[in-house]
Amino acid sequence: MRISLLLALLLLGGCKHLGLLFEPPATLKAIVQGEIKGMAIHCEKTLSLGKASWEVMCKVSDDIDIKYRTHSLNKHQTKLEILIDKKKGLERKVLIASTMIVSRNKPSSLLSMNDKGRMDVKAENIQ
Fold it and tell me: Taking the model in full, what pTM does it have?
């Protein structure tokens, strides 16, 4: 009995890959700065990965929101989508949007501009 218990402990202790199955989802720290329709924007938030639907990152005003969603490409890269939209009646209108790839090892930065404004997004992976 002692031998089988000892053998089982050695077998499970040697399986380092079992711990990887239970890792919590990774997080990103994202900063959005810029100007939309003459209004300065600044938003910082720690984002949880694996959000397939759009989540509100910050509210710029009563009718303008900054939203995000993430998609893991592999265990080293994540696609981060950021958009700023405005509520117009019952509909929402996208003012500016950007997509970037965030690597586990390096911070990423992206500048998006159009006739409605500019948005500078900086993101880095948090361990």
Answer: 0.73
Give the whole-angstrom CA distance, residue 65 versus residue 93: 11
Q: What is the mean pLDDT of each run of 10 residues along the chain (127 residues)?
A: 59 51 66 90 87 87 90 85 90 91 88 91 84
Q: What does R_g of the chain's alpha carbons equal in angstroms?
A: 21
Q: How far apart are CA 125 and CA 48, in angstroms?
A: 10
Please state, in angstroms and rounded to a whole number, the distance separating the CA atoms of residues 56 and 21. 29
**Does residue 35 lie in a domain region?**
yes
Domain of residue 44: give its range.
24-126
**Residue 95: partners with Cβ closer than 8 Å, 6 or more residues away:** 36, 37, 64, 84, 85, 86, 114, 116, 117
Residue 19 falls inside a structural domain:
no
From residue 114, alpha-carbon distances to 89, 97, 102, 118 in Å are 23, 10, 23, 6
Q: Which tokens sit at 103?
A: 């690597």
Is 48 contained in some domain? yes
